[in-house]
Specification:
15 helices; alpha/beta; 4-stranded parallel sheet; 4 strands; about 290 residues; 2 domains
Length: about 290
């Protein structure tokens, strides 16, 4: 109900902007705004933040019902590929991978950010010791949180993974990731950490035993890793790696938000042009005889 009211307000605000003759791009939040504002044709596109996945979808549906044609929306794929959920809303586009941060993470933007905060000597020594790339190490840890988030979504376990407001307390990744060895402390420590985080925020929490059983059930199956992991988790894990394991003293590095901002800044337009999302919207702009991307 609240999502519907807020989406209706977003749709109203767009339709009342009579002075603007271009297209509105509705996105989930500020980080999406920061990214897509780099790439859109600013003479023809205004970006509107809806502050949530569902509100983007609802706003696009409301605008369509009211006959407002000059709009499109972008949402995270989330677990839709894994769960077989199809997007059938005209003008609504989804990210190639779990979310836009994962799309960025798979490019050279990661290496650019690492070199910004960490010496090449330390980076090479870490990869030599671990026997894998830093990207692989981060994905391996992110996979475990991904399993739990997927189990929570499929079985409604009542776990909460983020605060209600952007400035609220985040989950403590160091509770289940060793910030010296950069290794996973085990699923039990992860579940207990999330149970502690969720108790004051959720009224539908399942027991530790039930959560454990459902997590193990989910983790026993094979998934496309880039649709399983969450970019927010990867950013937090990368922050832990740079700040604690590599002991970076950079004043630019204050929390995971600085990591996400750095990744966004490092993401090149040429990388974005290789994505399905970019090309799907190219087809849309041809169909609409307009200009979306610069």
């Amino acid at each position: 109900m609240e999502n519907s009211i807020l989406a209706d307000r977003i749709a109203n605000a767009i339709m009342m902007d009579n002075s603007f003759k271009g297209f509105y791009l509705v996105v989930e939040g500020n980080k999406d705004y920061k990214l897509f504002s780099k790439f859109v044709d600013e003479n023809n596109i205004k970006i509107k933040e809806a502050f949530g996945f569902e509100k983007v979808k609802l706003a696009i549906e409301i605008l369509t019902e009211r006959g407002y044609a000059n709009k499109l929306g972008i949402i995270d794929s989330d677990f839709s590929e894994i769960l077989g959920i199809k997007n059938e809303i005209d003008g609504l586009f989804i990210t190639d991978l779990h979310d836009i941060e994962v799309m960025i993470f798979k490019t050279q933007s990661l290496e650019t950010v690492l070199r910004t905060y960490v010496s090449s000597v330390k980076l090479k020594a870490f990869e030599t010791k671990s026997g894998k790339s830093i990207r692989e190490s981060i994905l391996e840890l992110g996979k475990e949180v991904g399993y739990l988030k997927l189990a929570n979504k499929v079985y409604d376990l009542g776990l909460i993974f983020k605060p209600k407001t952007a400035d609220g307390n985040q989950i403590k990744y160091k509770d289940f990731i060793d910030d010296k060895e950069f290794t996973f402390n085990g699923r039990k420590s992860m579940i207990n950490s999330l149970l502690n985080y969720s108790r004051s925020k959720s009224t539908t929490l399942k027991t530790e035993e039930e959560i454990t059983n459902k997590l193990e059930e989910i983790a026993s199956k094979a998934y496309d890793l880039e649709h399983l992991v969450n970019g927010h988790d990867l950013s937090n894990i990368l922050f832990l790696l740079i700040k604690k394991v590599f002991a970076s003293t950079s004043k630019m590095l204050y929390d995971f938000n600085s990591i996400e901002d750095s990744l966004t800044l490092a993401y090149e337009y040429e990388d974005f042009k290789k994505t399905k999302l970019y090309n799907d919207i190219i087809a849309f702009q041809v169909k609409k005889n307009t200009s979306i991307w610069r």
